[in-house]
Amino acid sequence: MIQSWGYAAPQAKQPLAPFSFERRDPGPNDIVIDIKYCGVCHSDIHQARDEWGGSIFPMVPGHEIVGIVIKVGSAVKNFKEGDRAGVGCMIDSCGHCSSCHSGEEQYCLNGATFTYNSRTNGEPNFGGYSNNIVVQESFAIRISPKLDLAASAPLLCAGVTTYSPLRHWKVGPGMKVGVVGLGGLGHMALKLAHSFGAHVVQFTTSLSKEADARQLGADEVVLSTDPAQMKKHAGSFDFILDTVSAKHDLGALLDQLKVNATMTIVGLPDQPTYLPGRGLIGRRRSLGGSLIGGIRETQEVLDYCADHGIVSDIELIPISKINEAYERVLKSDVKYRFVIDLATLPRP
Ligand code: NAP
Ligand code: ZN
Known about the structure:
The protein has helices spanning 42-48, 98-101, 149-152, 158-168, 184-195, 210-216, 227-233, 250-254, 277-281, 295-308, 322-330, and strands at residues 2-8, 17-23, 30-39, 65-72, 84-87, 90-92, 113-114, 119-120, 123-124, 132-136, 141-142, 176-180, 199-204, 220-223, 237-242, 257-265, 286-289, 314-318, 337-341. It is α/β, with parallel strands linked by helices. It folds into two domains: 2-157 and 294-344, Alpha-Beta Complex (Quinone Oxidoreductase, Chain A, domain 1), CATH 3.90.180; 159-289, NAD(P)-binding Rossmann-like Domain (Rossmann fold), CATH 3.40.50.720. Helix 8 links the parallel strand 15 and strand 16 (257-265). Helix 4 (158-168) packs across helix 5 (184-195) and helix 4 (158-168) crosses helix 10 (295-308). The longest helix is centred in the last third of the chain and has 14 residues, at 295-308. The radius of gyration is 20 Å and the shape is globular. The structure holds NADP nicotinamide-adenine-dinucleotide phosphate and zinc ion. NADP nicotinamide-adenine-dinucleotide phosphate (NAP) binds next to helix 1 and helix 5.
């Protein structure tokens, strides 16, 4: 076994604290990554606080993992020692269902294995708020040397989670696209939709983020709490991507769509959201959902971002600040993703 250490939530709603554990020895198809940086996703908070139910404790969160390969198994083809590598939200899937065959392991019909808050052979898996990870190479992502390593970590979740629906619903030039919520996912959606050539409108509840939104690529900004601003854009959007992490009014956002247009939600609040049928029926609108992206698409977004000079706007923190960072995310006080510098992780 490999000795590992990190930070874990011992129980729901308890602060994260130092934690030691073991990982499996690498098999022929595995690589070992020395973790350098890990992003802090709002999903880490939902799960560490058991807001979705069924959380497994102790929990080492973290699924925006980047680092350097320090060991490769005998059959590994695509990585060698010293390479950069990343791990996102998944570490395994059944490999033989129709979703896995089409490269959409996140929709594995037998259940994908997520990076943490999941089990392999009955044993809990631990995420990236830690010094190392062992992963099969087919679930590891190559990271271009053109990308800043720390700022590329959030691409592994926030990046692919917004890239995937923007591609699926074919966002591009000539389309008016709304992004709802300017947080970790929202700011990546804004950068990506802008780079795809769409006219992008940022919906926010935070007036203070307006200048940032424009600088990140928004053509227009709408304060979603102001009915007059909402009315001005009603019925005008080709597509809306909703990244909001808390319960909010979906009806007011659906009213922004054109006839036949779609709004897709990626935010997963702990509370169910009220959905008025009127907003859908009146203009034959659709409401969709989307979960991260497959491994192939995760590699695609990393490569796309390397080619287009896109990374996340990050605030680098020592691991000792993780509990404070969680509180700040809950207050929407982050520009726009916390990333943990694992060099600050204390050795037990
Ligand atoms: P985040 O950084 O906290 O951003 C969420 C944003 O939502 C906030 O910055 C805020 O933007 C807005 N917001 C918060 N509370 C609100 C409220 N009560 N009403 C309206 N707007 C509110 O979170 P994140 O890391 O981007 O994650 C967003 C959500 O996506 C989470 O629920 C997370 O679990 C989920 N997620 C889903 C997937 C997937 O595969 N589908 C993947 C990753 C994450 P403004 O200040 O601009 O209003
Ligand atoms: Zn995430």
